[in-house]
Design brief:
Length: 146
C-alpha cells in the first residue's frame, strides 16, 4: 500500500509540474489593447490586465500597445492626473516597453494639447486610432478590448 501511495504521489507530482511548466511557457505575443472609453476603474483594470499579461509572458517576450482614441485619451489626461495609481501604472507599463498610441483625430477634434497628456510624446501620436488598430491586426497583433 505504501509503495502504491508513493508511486501515486510521484506520478501526481510529475503531472502537476508538467502542467505548471506547460501553463507558464508562452511564445512571444503581439497584442493591442483597445481603449476608447473613460472609466477610471475600467482603465486601471485594463492596465492591470496588461501587467498580468507581461508577468505571464516574461519580460521581453511581448509587444504590447494601447491604442487610445475618443474618450480613451482621457486615460493619459484626466485619469493619470487625478489618480496616482493610474499614473504609476502608465509609467510602469511604459518602462516595460508598452507603447501608448494616441489618436491625432481625437486630439485635434477635442483640442487637446500633447502637453496635457501624461508623459506623451510626438512619437506616440498616430493619425487615426481605429486605422492603427486595423494596421496592427494586419501585422499580427491580437486584439483585446478590456
Amino acid at each position: 500500500m505504501k509503495k502504491f501511495l508513493l508511486t501515486s504521489i510521484a506520478a501526481l507530482s510529475l503531472i502537476l509540474s508538467g502542467w505548471v511548466f506547460a501553463s507558464a511557457s508562452y511564445a512571444k505575443q503581439k497584442v493591442v489593447y483597445h481603449v476608447n472609453y473613460f472609466d477610471v476603474k475600467r482603465s486601471i483594470g485594463a492596465m492591470r490586465n496588461a501587467q498580468n499579461h507581461i508577468n505571464a509572458l516574461g519580460q521581453g517576450n511581448h509587444e504590447i500597445r494601447f491604442v487610445l482614441h475618443g474618450n480613451g485619451v482621457e486615460l493619459l489626461r484626466k485619469v493619470a492626473q487625478e489618480s496616482p495609481d493610474a499614473a504609476n501604472r502608465v509609467d510602469s507599463l511604459r518602462s516595460q516597453g508598452v507603447k501608448f498610441n494616441i489618436c491625432a483625430n481625437t486630439l485635434k477634434g477635442r483640442k487637446i494639447a500633447l502637453e496635457d497628456l501624461h508623459f506623451a510624446e510626438q512619437v506616440d501620436i498616430v493619425p487615426s486610432g481605429v486605422a492603427e488598430i486595423g494596421k496592427l491586426q494586419q501585422e499580427g497583433f491580437v486584439y483585446l478590448r478590456p
